[in-house]
Amino acid sequence: MWRSYLFMYPFLVLYVAVVVPLFVPVMWVTGSIRPIYWMARQGCRIMLRIGGVRLRVLHLERAHMHPCCVFVGNHVSNIEAPALFSVLPRIAVIIKHSLGRIPLLGYVMRMGGFICVDRKVKDSRRQALLRALETLRSGISMLVFPEGTRNTAGRLLPFRPGPFQMAIAAGVPVVPVTVHGAAALWPRGLTYVRPGRVTLVFHPPIGTDGLDDGDRISLMNTVRDTMQAALDAATSGA
């Protein structure tokens, strides 16, 4: 508990307060997000270390097999996003509208191509998927959590088909990613991070060549089955 309250949270606030004012002008001048994106990744890595979170990454090479893809992960904790962001190549993420309103941090996320969804607005999710499709077509990968919310049920929740529809439309593969151990370190409702290890497992990319919109459910089920099998195997082997 003391790691989070005394070190991790203060570090995050200080890092954002220092890095954003320093690097945003560089981004304006150069027109490139790369410097501040690199700094954001370092910030995630340092924050996790300060919180006592040790990352174990398996088969990271699968994340680099294609220049653009849709990374699909399970979502049980707030650890997944910074953990994946710290190891993945350039990505954009669909985030909650409230995160996009955080001073400084929200501005940088929007500049980095992150897409905000306001669940109170009826058409917001559809518009977000359209913007995500444009992002993929521009060559930037997407990270999505198709369960739509943090899962406290143990098994994967039903997936939303939108991410798989946009992968097919963009003609990019889907890379399933399973995150193991995050629920024990930062479960929903807990306000601090427990020290421990989180394992990220990248599974073989699933191609979308030759698929059309009618195949989105089949693709979704294939990805979900792959992830559930990996989670079940990890649980039985624990």
Short recap of the structure:
With 238 residues, the protein is of the alpha/beta class. The protein is built from nine helices and seven strands. It is globular.
Could you describe the 3D structure shown?
There is one protein chain. The chain is α/β, with parallel strands linked by helices and 238 residues long. Helices cover 47% and strands 16% of the residues. It contains 9 helices and 7 strands; from the N terminus they run ααββαβααβαβαβαβα. It starts with a helix and ends with a helix.
Keywords, please?
238 residues, alpha/beta, Glycerol-3-phosphate (1)-acyltransferase, 7-stranded mixed beta sheet, globular
Architecture blueprint of SSEs:
Layout: H1 2-30, H2 34-50, E1 53-58, E2 70-73, H3 80-85, E3 91-96, H4 97-100, H5 105-111, E4 115-117, H6 124-137, E5 141-144, H7 162-170, E6 174-180, H8 182-185, E7 196-202, H9 216-237
Parallel strand pairs: 1-7, 2-5, 2-6, 3-4, 3-5
Antiparallel strand pairs: 6-7
